[in-house]
Amino acid sequence: MRSIYFIVNPNAGNGRCRKIWDRIETLLIDEQVSFLAFYTEYPGHAKKLAGQIAAKHDGETIIVTVGGDGTLHEVMNGVTRNKNVILGFIPGGSGNDFSRGFKIPSNPVKALQVLLRLIKSDPVQIDNGKMTLADGAEEFFINNMGAGFDALIAYQVNHSPIKAILNKLSLGRLVYVYFLLKELFTFKPTTIDIAIDGKKYSFKQSWFVTVSNQPYYGGGMKIAPAAIPDDGLLDITVVHELSRWKLLLVFISVFWGKHIFFQEVKTFKGRMISIQSAEKLFVHGDGEHVGYTPLKIEIQVKSMQVLTRMQHAPEVNLEARDSNDF
Ligand SMILES: Nc1ncnc2c1ncn2[C@@H]1O[C@H](COP(=O)(O)OP(=O)(O)OP(=O)(O)O)[C@@H](O)[C@H]1O
Fold it and tell me: Which residue range or ranges hold the DAGKc domain (predicted)?
C-alpha cells in the first residue's frame, strides 16, 4: 500500500489555496482515503518537508502538492534523489502551468477525482532538468527555466511589496504588467552564448533564453509548443534582436505558441546546454529565482514519477534533433 502525503501551501493563489485544501480534505475524508497533510510555513519549507517524508519510506510514497508551480518546484527539489517518490498535483496557485502541461484539470476538485483514479495505476516516468550554477549549486526544474528578461520580471514580482497589496485586491496579474512595462524600456538586451550538445551559438541583443520540459510557462504562455516531458529532450527558446515594441507583439503571440514564427525567435532541442552572457542575467527555475548566469543544464531522462493523464512520448527522432541549424 502506497502512503499518501499532501503538502499544502496555504498562501498560494493569493491565499485561495487554504480554502481549496479545506474542500479537498473534506472530500478525502468522505472517500475514506487515508493520508497525512502538512502546511508549509515559509518559503523553502515544502522542499524540507518532502525530503523528510521521502527519507522515512523505503516503499513507494505519493507526495501531492496542493499549491502553485513554486511549491511543486520545492517539493520536487526535495526528492530528486528518492526514486520511490511519486508526485501528484492539485492546482491551488495563480499560475499552475504544471497542470496545463501534464493534463491535470484546473478545477481542484476534478483534479482530486483524477488523482484518486491515477493512484490505482502506474505513474508516468518523466524527464526533468538539472541546473548547475557557477558556484556548483544544483537546482532542478520540472516545467522550465529561464535566463534574462523573464527571470528579471519573475524576481521583481516576487520581491515586490506591491504584489501583496494587489493580491489582496485580487489584482495580482497587474503587478506582472507593471514590471513588464517598466523593464521593457530599461532592460538592456545582451549577447548570450549557448552550447547545445557541443554545438555553439552566439546571439546578440538577446532578451532571454528558456529551457523547457513542457510547453507552458508564466501562467499559460505556450513558450515551447513542441516540448514533451518524457521524450528525453529539452526545448530551448531564444528571443534576440527584437525591438521593444515587437517584443510586446511576441509576448501576445506566445499565448497561442505562435511566437516561434518570428525570425527573432529561435528554437532548438537538446540534452546538455550551457548558457553564458556578456552581462550577468537573472535565472529562474519554474518561476522561482535561483541565481545568475553562467550555468549548465542537463536533462535527467525519465528520472521522476508523476501522476498524470498525459500519453507517453513517441520515440525520439535524433536526426531531427541534430538538424538544429538556422
Ligand atoms: N507558508 C508560506 N508562506 C509564504 N510563502 C510560502 C509559503 N509556502 C511556500 N511559500 C512560497 O510561496 C511561493 C509561491 O508559491 P506558488 O508558486 O506555489 O504559489 P502561486 O500562487 O503560484 O504563487 P505566485 O503568487 O508567486 O504565483 C513559493 O516561492 C514558495 O516558496
Answer: 1-135
